[in-house]
Amino acid sequence: MIAIARRELGSYFATPVAYVFIVIFLALAGALTFTLGNFFGRGQADLNPFFSFIPWLFLFLVPALTMRLWAEERRQGTIELLLTLPVTQWQAVLGKFLAAWAFCAIALALTFPLWLTVNWLGRPDNGVILAGYVGCLFVAGAYLAVGAAISALTKNQVIAFVLAVSACFVFAAAGSPVVTEFLSANLPVLADIARAVSVNERFSGFTRGVVSARDLIFFASFILFWLLVNTVVLEHRKAD
Amino acid sequence: MAALIEIEGLTKRFGAFTAVEGVSFSVSKGEVVGFLGPNGAGKSTTMRMLAGFMAPSAGTARICGFDVQEQSVAARRNLGFLPEGAPTYPEMTVSGFLGFCGRVRGFRGAELATRIARAMERTELQGVRLQPIETLSKGFKRRVGLAQALLHDPAVLVLDEPTDGLDPNQKHEVRTLIQEMAPEKAIIISTHILEEVEAVCTRAIIIARGRLIVDKPPRELAAEGPDLEAVFRRLTTGEAA
Question: Which of A4, A10, A86 sits opposite B73 (nearest CB)?
C-alpha cells in the first residue's frame, strides 16, 4: 500500500500535473485572498478570507487531481497490472487516495507565506489557523474520495472531471442558505439531511477554531464511505 | 504431483455473449502450454480470469492450490502475469517501475536491488534502466513487462503474447529464456506464432469461440495434417466440427 502511494505521488511529480496544480492553486488562493477577500482592508490578522475560498478552489482543483487516478489506469491498461499484483483492492484504493491526499497537504503547506504574513503584520490566533488548515485538509480528503470513486467509473478523464465537480458541488452547496431555505419551504425532511451532509457547513466550524468530534467523525466516515464505494465500483467494473 | 495451475469449468459471460465456456485444464511443473486461438476466441479473457483480474461467471481457477477468487492475494504471489499489450506506467523509468513492482511484492533493500538486477539481466534491459518507459521502443516495453512478471521468480507464469512486437533476435531470446525457466515452473503463453509453439511448448491448447477444442502436444497435433498451421486453420474455422 505504501509502495502504491509512493509510486502515485512520484507520478504526480514526474509529469507536469503537480507543478501546474500547485502553481494554479497558490496563484488563485493568493489572488482571491487579497482581492475578493480584502485581506488588507479588513484590518484583522487572521486567515479567514483565505479559508473561505479554499473549499471552492478545491471544488475545481481536486477533481482535476482525481480524474486521472483510475481513468488513466484504465486507459493505459495498467489497471490489469496493478490489480493482479498481490494487493487487495482496498489497499490499492487506499494507496491512491493517500498519495492524492499527501499531495494536497503539500500544496496547502506551500501557502505558508500567508501565515508568515499575518504573523508579521499582527498577532493572529495560530490555534485557529491550525484548525483551519486541518479543516482544509479534510475538505480536500472528502472531495478526493468522491472524485476517486467517480474516476473508477470511467476511462474518460473529462467525464470523470465533470462528474466529480458536479458531485462535489452538491456536497458543497447542500448547506448554503439558498438550498436549505428552498428545501425547508418545500421538503423540510431533506433540509436537515442537506445540512448534515454539507462539507462546507462542517468546514466552517474549523475556520472558527472549533475542532469538534462530530465534524471529525463526519469527515472520517464521509471519506471512508466514498473509499468503500470506490472499492465496490472497482470490483464490478475493473475489467470493462 | 499436484498441478500448479488448475482450471475447472471456467466460464465468462458478458450479457448474452459467452466469451469463454466451460474451459478446463491443468498445468504441472515443467510444462509450457501454448495457448492458441483466433482473435476474440477467449484467450485473453481466460488468462485474465486465471490472474484474478476478471471474476468468472462460473467455474474455478487455482494457482499453486490457491483459489484465484477466494485466496486471491496468495494466488497472485505465486503468479507472474504479463497482461495483453504489456501495460506499464509510461512516465516511470525502467528501474523505477521494477522497483515499484518489487516493493508491492514486499521486497526491500538489497534483496530488491538484486532481484531487479537479475530480472533486467534476463530480459537484457540493463542498457535502458534509467530511461522513462515511454521513450522506449515496443520491443523494450514488452521486455519491461516480462521483467516485471519474472521479478519475484514465481512458480506460475502467464504470459499474454510475450513475443508480440519483438524482432526475430529478441523473439529467439525470449524463447530461450522461457525454455531455461521451464523445468522449474508451469508456464502458459498465448501466441499467434505457430512455430513458436512447436519450438518451446510441451502442449498446445486451442480455443475457438470460447471452447477448448484441442489439448495435445504440438508434435501430435502437427502430425494430423500437413503441418501445424493447416491443422490450426482446419480446427478453428469450424470445418472439422
Answer: A86
